[in-house]
Amino acid sequence: MCSLIIGGEWIGRRGLYRANISKTEYFDSLDRMVIPKKRSFIILSYDLSAHTTERQIKRTAYPTIICCQIEDIYKIEPVREHFRIYYKGSSISDSDYMQKVQCIREHISQGTIYQANLTNRFDFDLEGNPESLACAFFQRQAVPYAFCYREEGFFILSGSMELFLSRKNGHLKSKPIKGTAREQGELEQSIKDQAENLMITDMMRNDLGKIAIVGSVKTTELFKVTPYSTLYQMHSTVEAVTGSNIIHILSNTFPPASVTGAPKIKAVEIIDSLEPHPRGYYCGSAGLLEPNGDFTLSVLIRTAYGKGSSFSYYAGCGIVWDSSPEMELQEMYLKVNAFHRMI
After folding, report:
1. Cβ distance 82 to 132 under 8 Å?
2. What's the CATH number where 12 sits?
3. Is residue 332 part of a domain?
4. Which of 16, 48, 269, 310 is 20 to 30 A from 129 in CA distance terms?
5. Of all helices (H) and strands (E), which one includes residue 246?
6. Local structure of residue 290 (DSSP, 8 states)
7. Within-domain flag for 65
8. Which residues are part of the catalytic machinery?
């Protein structure tokens, strides 16, 4: 039996909503995915990158694509059952993380890449209901793309603020996030964060250019800073027009540029060599797919998933030549602050 709670902003409303799921399908690649004829919620694992980039990466045993057909959606009150989480450790130590940041800087100095996103995994035990954990997380930091999916002891929760892609009447939009700080002014004045953001924006323009009508790709926002309860984030907006369906679009744009690096294929290779953990659903994508082919997909940042009483939460940073290992470590912990506050 599957369960799905989504934040109201997915459907232009406020509050939390539960979706009645009539059917759940699983696919291991986009080639085998059947586009549903009813409104659905789809979840794409970062594992899908092995298919779209044609590169070997560490993979999980979880389904690559989950597609839940939705019968109806109704508003609910936040689940408030007792829960506690217990921190067990991370896949990369602080000293090793800083060494890996330096390794990426060396790749950049050699001209191999311009940027790469380095992530860490934080492991926890959960006592209680995953939906209570998810609701508490969503309430502590309101974001537009929140959801919690459960099935047979397995769960995924995400409190993402990043739009990977939306399609409405053939009009595509993406809002890649790069740049994080405690203070708005600090982010607005950071040349390093602007450079990081611009690289990813250019990558998104390139990705959309593969499936867009010629001349329709445009950057409509650049270096926009948005406040959240625990941090500030910088995003830009890229738009385009296309006649392609979701499978063709994802085949040419997945994984999201903001969680890989530039150039994307080489960044994926370097990421996999440096990160000891598979990313799984973290850095993948999820969202609503409408019967007419329109969709809204988030980037799965601020995301946790697991099975039984064990789960993992992830965070990472985009590394460029100007990156300081110590500052990148601080930024990574800033991103998990909203989650750690629940311990």
Report:
1. yes
2. 3.60.120.10
3. no
4. 48
5. helix 246-253
6. -
7. yes
8. 162, 178
Q: Are 92 and 305 in contact (CB under 8 A)?
A: no
Kindly report the CA angle at 122 between 203 and 7, in degrees rounded to 5? 65
Domain extent for 160: 2-86+126-260+279-307
C-alpha to C-alpha distance for 145 and 9, rounded to whole angstroms = 7
User: Measuring CA to CA, which residue among 73, 62, 87 is closest to residue 17?
Assistant: 73
Total domains in the chain come to: 1
B/e letters for 270-307, b = 16+ CB within 10 Å, e = fewer, are bbbebbebbbbbbbbbbbbbeeebebbbbbbbbbbbbe
List the one residue out of 301, 4, 289 whose CA is nearest residue 175.
301
**What is the CB-side half-sphere exposure of residue 261 using CA atoms within 13 A?**
26
Alpha-helical runs (H) found in 31-154: 49-52, 94-109, 130-140
117 burial via Cβ count (<10 Å: 0-12, 13-18, 19+): buried
- The structure's pTM equals 0.95
| Measured distance CA(209)–CA(170) in Å, rounded | 14
Nearest to 236 by CA among 261, 207, 203, 214: 203
Contact yes or no for 147/10 (Cβ under 8 A)? yes
- Which comes out higher in pLDDT, residue 209 or 1? 209
Q: What tokens does 158 get?
A: 């995400």
- Quick: pLDDT tens for 260-290: 999 999 999 999 999 999 999 999 999 999 9
Q: Is residue 19 part of a domain?
A: yes
Distance linking the first and last C-alpha atoms of the chain? 29
Lowest mean pLDDT among 93-97, 183-187, 291-295, 306-310: 183-187
Residue with the two structure tokens 């500052």: 327
